[in-house]
Amino acid sequence: MKAVFIGSISTLADTSELQRKAFNHAFAEAGLDWHWSSEDYRARLSSSGGRDRIAAFAKEKGIEVDAEALHARKTEVFLEKLRGGAAVLREQTQGLLEYARQHDLKLAFVSGTARESLEALVDSFGGAAALGFDLVTASGDAAPKPAPDLYLHALDLLDLDAADVLAIEDNRPGVDAAKAAGLTVLAYPNENTAGHDFSDVDGIDRWSDYLPAEKAA
């Protein structure tokens, strides 16, 4: 392996619960009697895009809402939490980042999240350079997952072959995107995606199994 691609913000830091609470905050402010429990939120993580999740939920409820405005407010609340230091780097991911830096592997953060959210998260850990990222992608750089475009975009920019890259993902759309791009895929589920079907990935949790044994920490 010559590179590691971190595939989502919740693979870097477990932000799913912060996101869920931000959604509920936005709903309450808008006067909606919606409350997504952890179970509700887990069920909605099988698809990508917070705005689309809101629109789909409103359709289920048979009401019209401004999904764009609700999602914008949710993002504001989420950013406040990130900037307040609420996110914690996932332990295994921290070990992986340290390994990559020590052994000159290229690192990319191949996310389809909004650039502002990405920057808030990355900056809370000292910035992209401190984490060792050679590239950080965001929504708007390419078609969203589960399309493989973001991964293909990163491969092109870093002049890498798919066979030389290990992708770390924590959700089903991300896994589908990485597999479609031809990458080796390791699932690193978070609390809210542990129930996703990861039966077709190359491995779960143990990134050290996919990097040179003689270099393993």
Helix count, DSSP H or I runs of 4 or more residues: 10
Number of domains: 2
Strand order of the largest sheet: 3-2-1-4-5-6
Relative strand content: 5-15%
List keywords for this structure.
alpha/beta; hydrolase; PGP-like_dom2; DNA polymerase, domain 1; hydrolase activity; 217 residues; CbbY-like; 6-stranded parallel beta sheet; HAD-IA family hydrolase; Rossmann fold
Walkthrough of the structure:
It comes from Sulfitobacter aestuariivivens. Pfam families: Hydrolase. Keywords: Hydrolase. This protein has 2 domains: 3-14 and 88-215, HAD superfamily/HAD-like (Rossmann fold), CATH 3.40.50; 16-83, DNA polymerase, domain 1. α5 (67-83) runs parallel beside α7 (115-124). The longest helix has 17 residues, at 67-83. The protein is an alpha/beta fold and 217 residues long. Helices cover 45% and strands 11% of the residues. The two termini are 15 Å apart. A 6-stranded parallel beta sheet has the order 3-2-1-4-5-6, with helices on both faces. α10 (172-180) links the parallel β4 and β5 (184-187).
